[in-house]
Amino acid sequence: MKQKDVKIPEATIKRLSTYINCLEKLDGDGYQVVSSDLLGESCQVSPAQIRKDLSYFGEFGVRGVGYGTRSLAEQIKKILGLDHIWTTVLVGVGHLGQALLNFTAFRQHGFRIVGAFDADPAKIGTVVSDGVVIEPVSALDDTIHREQAGIGIITVPAANAQETADLLVEGGITGILNFAPIKVRVPENITLRNVSILSELDNLAYLLSNRTRRRSRKKS
Amino acid sequence: MKQKDVKIPEATIKRLSTYINCLEKLDGDGYQVVSSDLLGESCQVSPAQIRKDLSYFGEFGVRGVGYGTRSLAEQIKKILGLDHIWTTVLVGVGHLGQALLNFTAFRQHGFRIVGAFDADPAKIGTVVSDGVVIEPVSALDDTIHREQAGIGIITVPAANAQETADLLVEGGITGILNFAPIKVRVPENITLRNVSILSELDNLAYLLSNRTRRRSRKKS
């Protein structure tokens, strides 16, 4: 992998993640080799975009033939660091937490949830998925150490997000995915991604308004 | 608003959405005027980035003084098309759907959920939030028309996502936010955003792996 010190656009990483799913579907459908046209059709991305995204990471496939379906999926997994298991803990088993715990695709991409935590005593001891039992937040530190967990997912209410992040960092987590609708602060050596569901909806509203504006401009 | 025909980066739109939340928090804390330093500190974005993001849409604030906190929030809402109500329906009241229905921030940004739909007969008639009652999917068309809904949120399993998108489009929805872990196809006049929670986690894995790689390179 001749990954240079080029900054890879976030949109490329997002698409690479999608390509894996499309390739695995195509592989399941019996395609051992795919062209960028077929992969593009399956992923709703232009073939040129696929070639550009892959070009950041080296040469893939054979000109005029295509890509080995399974091998490209494996190579992309390697690029994204999904070629090994990421032990993950989740804090906050409300509806969103429960939805993520049920999400089978996590496991397919190598994320294994080894602990689920909640502050509500009534939930402690409930089996949530794959034999994971809800533990009290006070057990977070022990479980992170025992399972050598690397990633923490925050699905607690906004008011508890910062203290949860602090506990994850103290426990030794190095990557955090925060779904709480508030930005949390972490030390510089921790990799943090804030996921804002609200901003996705805002973005849709922006695109819709803009579309209308453009349309009215054309009419006038 | 001197919005030109410049393509606004998606990351800018995402940050604008965050600025609204920070500004409303600062307003609540009593700041009537904010500098880009203070707003940046609150949002964890550099002041230069804030100025750049806003510059796409014109001139805001007074040099050396700052921005009117509430007025900037209102102007950003206008930019994003959040200055009016977006009537919204949601299909699929599983854990993720329920999480979104409970999400109070939607309402603060002008999204009003006027209908929630599920295929499970056992759920029909359950009150979910704000007096919204779960209806059967067969009622989707009627509700979209009656409420003049413009946005549809898809939180059904992957296998039902495409048929749900088709029903929303037939009903007259013009914008779709799809959370199902599969891309859906819609006619060109429909604005669609696919939200991939899996790709957020993949991105975190990529950043973590890359960080480790860089660190090992430095050491060697």
Total helices of chain A: the number is 9
CATH topology of the largest domain in chain A: Rossmann fold
> What is the total domain count of chain A?
2
Helix-strand pattern of chain A: HEHHEHEHHEEEHEHEEH
Q: Which CATH architecture of the largest domain in chain A is right?
A: 3-Layer(aba) Sandwich
Give the fraction of residues assigned to helices of chain A: 40-55%
Arrangement of strands in the largest sheet of chain A: 5-6-4-3-7-8-9
- For CATH, the homologous superfamily of the largest domain in chain A is named as NAD(P)-binding Rossmann-like Domain
Q: What is the straight-line distance between the termini of chain A?
A: 53 Å
Radius of gyration from the alpha-carbon trace of chain A, in angstroms? 21 Å
Describe the biggest sheet of chain A?
7 strands, mixed
Number of strands of chain A: 9
Your description of this structure?
- The structure is a homodimer of 220-residue chains.
- Chain A is α/β, with parallel strands linked by helices and 220 residues long.
- The first copy, chain A, contains 9 helices and 9 strands.
- In chain A, the strands form 2 sheets. A 7-stranded mixed beta sheet of chain A has the order 5-6-4-3-7-8-9, sandwiched between helices.
- In chain A, helix 1 runs antiparallel to helix 4 (69-80), helix 2 (36-43) packs across helix 3 and helix 7 (140-147) crosses helix 8 (158-171).
- The N and C termini of chain A lie far apart (53 Å).
- The model of chain A has no long low-confidence stretch (mean pLDDT 91).
- Chains A and B meet through helix 1, helix 5, strand 8 and helix 9 of A and helix 1, helix 5, strand 8 and helix 9 of B.
